[in-house]
Each structure stands twice: as structure tokens, then as C-alpha cells.
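Could someone model NAP with this protein?
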Amino acid sequence: MDTTRIALVTGGARGIGRATCLALAAQGAAVAVHYRSRADAAQAVVEQIRAAGGVAIPVQADLLDPAAGARLAEQVRAELGPVDILVNNAGEQGTAAVAELADAEWQRSLDLNLTAAFRLARACLPGMLARRWGRIINVSSQAAYTGSVRHAHYAAAKAGLLGFTFSLAKEVGPHNVTANVIVPGRIETDMLAEQLPARGAEWLRQTPLGRLGRPEEVAAAIAFLASEAASYITGAALHVGGGLVMG
Ligand SMILES: NC(=O)c1ccc[n+]([C@@H]2O[C@H](COP(=O)([O-])OP(=O)(O)OC[C@H]3O[C@@H](n4cnc5c(N)ncnc54)[C@H](OP(=O)(O)O)[C@@H]3O)[C@@H](O)[C@H]2O)c1
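Reply:
Sure, complex below.
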């Protein structure tokens, strides 16, 4: 990868986001490691990248704040340069049956899992369009395809990311900016830790490869989509789920 590429990865302090920061840095990108609450974990990722000779900074924001997207894009521009690679990875899976789901919980899920990605894309796009180079990679979920009991608000937001990404790909393609969506299956991170003891065996039965995925396996797909090698791929939904969802 061209060493001048600047990447912003939301939720970069742990899980899939952390692995993505490391993979992009290994490809030569300068990485803004976004975090909400885990400053120490974000700093550790930054230090790991710097120790390997790379360039990285931590950037903090609660993406439920409507102003966060524009502020983050500006902070990265000021400290590293304009964002070339945007990875909308931060997410949260609330749990509630639809019959008991409060408006506020529904709204929170849409705000974080869908609207934050739109706001960040909107903030980063003018620079990408002007430079005629950009990569926007949104992280959806298998739940968008299969549905998920007690996670309808999460699945709806993640399904929204698909339509958003495909529309964006059509809109910005003529400017040499690509937009793709990654669809993780069941990946071993904090997000699944609570449900794992009760549901792990069922998950393995549903997964042809017969195991959970590792964050690094999702990060490798994201890094590929961010690379020059993926220059003719846009509007793709890339499944990284051991065969859990096919197509
Ligand atoms: N793990 C899976 O099996 C799986 C499957 C399908 C899709 N996904 C998707 O993959 C992405 C990464 O998941 P993961 O498993 O790596 O999750 P994770 O380990 O639970 O990490 C979630 C990340 O989101 C950030 N975040 C949460 N709320 C935020 C907010 N209000 N503002 C800003 N950042 C916020 C967290 O930041 P802090 O820690 O700094 O608070 C954290 O970095 C998510 O979009 C998730 O929906 C995961």
C-alpha cells in the first residue's frame, strides 16, 4: 500500500477494530485508532504500531454524539492528513424482544450501528472525492441476513448498512471511491463472550467451517478491500463467517 494512505478505524481499541488497525498499519497506512471508553487499550494499539515503525494516533469520540463524525474527520485531517480509508467498525448489540423494546433502545442501535457510519462517510467523502481516491468499508453482521432473536434493532441497523453501502458505491464510484461491506459471522470477541457458554455449540453447528472466527481473519478481508489490489471491487458484501451465510 502507498505509505501516504490515512486510515480511520472506529472501535479500534479491541476486537475486530484492533486487528484491523494492526493489519492496515502492516500495509503501510497511518492509522487513527478510534475509541470511546478504552483509552488505555487504544494507546496500546498505537504503541504497538509505532514499535513496528508505523504511524498511529488515538482519537476519542462517542459516536452517539451527532457531531462526532465531523469532529473526528477534522481531527484526523489536522493530525495525520485527510482520511483515505474509513472503516466503520464500532458497534453494539443490544438485547431485547421486540414486544419489550423501548423507543430509546431502538434509536440507540440505529444511531450507533447505522447513522454514525453515514455521518463519518459524509464527513470524509469531500476529501476523497476531491483526491479521486477513497475506500469506505462498513462492518455489518450475519444478523442482517439471518435475523436474530432479541436483536431485531441490531439486525435492522446492520441490514440498513447494506443498502447504505450499495447506494454509496453507485454514487461515488465515478470518483474512484469504493464502498464495500464486510459481513462477519461469529467472531471471538468481547461482543459474543456473554452468549458464548449458552450458544457456542449451536453456533458451531451452524458454521460449515466448524469454529468461531478470529478478529484477524476479518481484519485481513478489510485490509484487502482497503488495498490497491481491490481497486475494481465496489458494492460488494464480503462474508467472513466460515460459511454461516453464503452468497
Ligand atoms: N464479534 C462478532 O461475532 C461480530 C459478528 C458480526 C458483526 N460484528 C460487528 O463487528 C464490529 C466489531 O465488533 P467486535 O466483535 O470487535 O465488538 P467489540 O469487541 O464488542 O467492540 C465494540 C467496539 O465498538 C466501540 N463502541 C461501542 N459503542 C460505541 C459508541 N457509542 N461510540 C463509539 N464507539 C463505540 C467500542 O469502543 P470502546 O471499547 O472504546 O468503548 C469497541 O471498540 C461491530 O460493528 C459488530 O457489530 C461482530
